[in-house]
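Example with several molecule types.
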Amino acid sequence: MAVREVLRQVRCRRLGAVGLVVVWVLLWGSLSPIVLLGGVLVAILVIGVFPLPALEHRFHLRPLWILVLFARLLVDLVVSAVTVGWQAVRYGSRTRTGIVAVPLHVDSDLLIALTANVTSLTPGSYVLEIDRRHRVCYVHTLPLHGRSDAERQRREVWAVEERITRAVGTDEQVRVVLEARRRRERT
Amino acid sequence: MTAPDIVSAVTLLAGATFCLLGAIGVVRFPDTAARLHAAAKPQTLGLLLILLGTAIRVPADTVMALLLVALLQLTTTPVTAQIVGRAAHRIKAMKRPNVVLDELGTRDQPPAPPSTR
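Resulting structure tokens for the full complex:
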């Protein structure tokens, strides 16, 4: 691969490169010059070997909402571990499951990816297919007994989407998500 | 026994319990897609608790590496679940009596469109 192309990738993904160096330093557990140099070389190598399309959307970091997102994520993780564990012990092979289609409101690779990721860590659900073009997440739900559970699942994913958007979305995206919720509440 | 010892003991045991719950789920759930829930959630929480319990007892400079383990676990688990779950659905490895709703299999009837645009 052309050196210029690698340099362009590294320039476009400065943040990712810094992240890779940090991971490398953490792995070695020391900040000596040789480790740092190794980290920079590995970061350039990884970015050069695995080129990615640039994120086409801008994002906006809101520290307070990021904190809310993380706090909620921890709570959800505990609740979901307990729910799934209880289902395993109490119902086992009689557990009912289902796949729910959840149409999302935001139209951004980053926000959809994050929403799918966080949904997979919330109680009784993980995303098993994303239809990017139609902005639909297909969520595997456990336990699921009928239509009302599917509706509840949809509302939960939308709540995750809203928290993600408030944490890292642009003002415009936040407006879209809040508008969608107002419409839902009216009907 | 000091306070850190007790906290560490409690978190390690709780973590082990959640890992056990995850294992029970993997054995008992009806199909691959359901088993992934057990592999994803109780397992992740169990690991996080064990890391927390370990972090209390080891020198401070190794704690960062433990943090890295937690971060990688949280970011990679959903990806695994998605890839394996999708594969299970595509090869129809889901036990039908247990699957009460499959909106991915019946895409002809999409739910209400997004309320924007």
